[in-house]
From TrEMBL, chains A, B:
Top-level taxon of the source organism: Eukaryota
The protein's name in its UniProt record: enoyl-[acyl-carrier-protein] reductase
Family membership noted in the UniProt record: Belongs to the zinc-containing alcohol dehydrogenase family. Quinone oxidoreductase subfamily.
Gene3D superfamilies reported for this sequence: Medium-chain alcohol dehydrogenases, catalytic domain, NAD(P)-binding Rossmann-like Domain
Keyword set includes Mitochondrion: yes
MF GO annotations: enoyl-[acyl-carrier-protein] reductase (NADPH) activity
Enzyme Commission number, as recorded: 1.3.1.104
Main subcellular location: mitochondrion
Places the protein is found: Mitochondrion
Keywords: Fatty acid biosynthesis, Fatty acid metabolism, Lipid biosynthesis, Lipid metabolism, Mitochondrion, NADP, Oxidoreductase, Transit peptide
Catalyzed reactions per annotation: a 2,3-saturated acyl-[ACP] + NADP(+) = a (2E)-enoyl-[ACP] + NADPH + H(+)
Amino acid sequence: MSKFTEAICYKSFGSVLNSLYLEPNCSVYHHSYKNGKDWVRIGFRATPINPSDINQIEGVYPVKPNTFPAVGGNEGVAQVLEIGQQVKDIKVGDFVIPRLSGFGTWRRETICDPACLFRVHKSIGLINAATVSVNLCSAYRMLHDYISLSQGSFYFTVRQDDVVIQNAANSGVGKAIIQICKHKKIKNINVIRKRETTEESNALMNHLKQLGSSMTVFEDDLINNVNKVQEQIMEHFKVLPILGLNAVGGENSTNIFRLLNKNGAMVTYGAMSKKPIKLPTGPFIFDNKKCFGFWMSQWYSDSQNNSKRSEMMNDICSMIEKRALSTLDYKLYSYKDYQRANPRLY
Amino acid sequence: MSKFTEAICYKSFGSVLNSLYLEPNCSVYHHSYKNGKDWVRIGFRATPINPSDINQIEGVYPVKPNTFPAVGGNEGVAQVLEIGQQVKDIKVGDFVIPRLSGFGTWRRETICDPACLFRVHKSIGLINAATVSVNLCSAYRMLHDYISLSQGSFYFTVRQDDVVIQNAANSGVGKAIIQICKHKKIKNINVIRKRETTEESNALMNHLKQLGSSMTVFEDDLINNVNKVQEQIMEHFKVLPILGLNAVGGENSTNIFRLLNKNGAMVTYGAMSKKPIKLPTGPFIFDNKKCFGFWMSQWYSDSQNNSKRSEMMNDICSMIEKRALSTLDYKLYSYKDYQRANPRLY
């Protein structure tokens, strides 16, 4: 087979402004495809831009392309256009997403080994399918893997006293966390930065409340008066949070760690403030608190998680079908508008 | 029964200088003993002074006495002097240690519920028995519970590439860690502070080497040139440490965290620098590193650990009997010399 397609590529690491270009004649062979193996031809229908996609082009992300020029993009949904004779479990017309990071999803078509793909329910729609594997799955795993959250239905007995706290609550992952918490009946405290006007702040708080937020806290209050925030939490929930999700770092994360209950865990998945995590020793030792890092790409690359992945995807698709969970804010751009699509380029 | 004994007590929280006194007529009933229950009369033979015993008297330690005046001391070995009719598993003459913190061990005698006591092998000798439950057991658990150390015989397959790094290596716990590592064939890197003279520093390094240290690193070098330390470690061991044990905090712990291999864990059990732990976010997220706190008292108070405790004690006693492990530096004082015995009092 010899076929060419449109793709957004980069020839070397660098700023997206200088490095990215639209390649009209990109070879459709995915680097993981080898002759003799079974094959699937897929056509991408929607692929998002994540901050990590940009970091990857800049060369500062641990996932790096095998060769240059490389096709950008790690996530996206494709439809199966054609399959080799031996291919089972995948049919023409199916929705598929890449199994691992580094696939290069910003292209119209590619041919690859079916083992590189993961089938998703068509019923969840193109946009959710395109964005399910990073933000929605990150939210799901962090709520699932570090603390046995007892209130939700994560295989545990329902109790009335589990609370989660997160910062960057207005991010894609943040909003997914709120929605999953609401669906699983987990109480959630959401730390956001104050907006420019009170009206804008109130509007954001209301938006998060509608998604399922039990309480919103401004970052300034968390940093300047953690004791008062603690009082408010105790008044509201009668118990401190058992799980903290941190994508910010700095003083914000220090105080999230402080606010955790005994035996609580803080999971870090981002560092928006670019400041390190500073933690007091006492809570580690005497309150048996724990700190973990989470990286969705790492989780996917661990083959031990394969069966958990299908289970998670079924659970997430079922939430999407029930309209309990969805990718919220997006704008659609065509490939030729790739420069407008990237918020760092205009 | 009505009986009185000599004890070192305190009437309220405060400095050891003002609060501690020698009580010649302390009632022998331990607060956990209740009438009607079975009883054991024990005579303490040796009880150590730990920094946490002092913090407890100052009121800044989470273990607090139920009533005042309180008897000081959390650890020590006693001999069984007399037993109630129903008492099984404990015989007159046995060596016993308190099962939990807060027992009040700085007294000649007490009567208590046999459930408060844990029997130890007589063969390990008075001094090791008196100090086994804090320092030696802390070292054992931290090496055991956070990483599946594969080189030693901790129920895992022997491999040639596991390395542990610790600071405060010259402390009681630190030296126990070195000895256990040597016995279990775990390579160990020991961070110490430079002494006043080169001779003293060399003497300390030699002392640790004799105990089983594979490599010694000065704190200054760790803080000022972590890259060079990393090169030395790679040259020496071909691999970075998988477990870091931290009793210091501050920059020292930041760099121990940095030096850990992928999937590594840092366990914090002390904060000698009184500085918080500052951790870069990248290693958390991309290297899947983890941070835990460890507190021996907490571990003992969790009844799930009861069976592990006997197993640990058998293993430790066997190491002591083989002369692979021991409490190293000590001075003996009589009760009447309690002021001289306390390093903060003279």
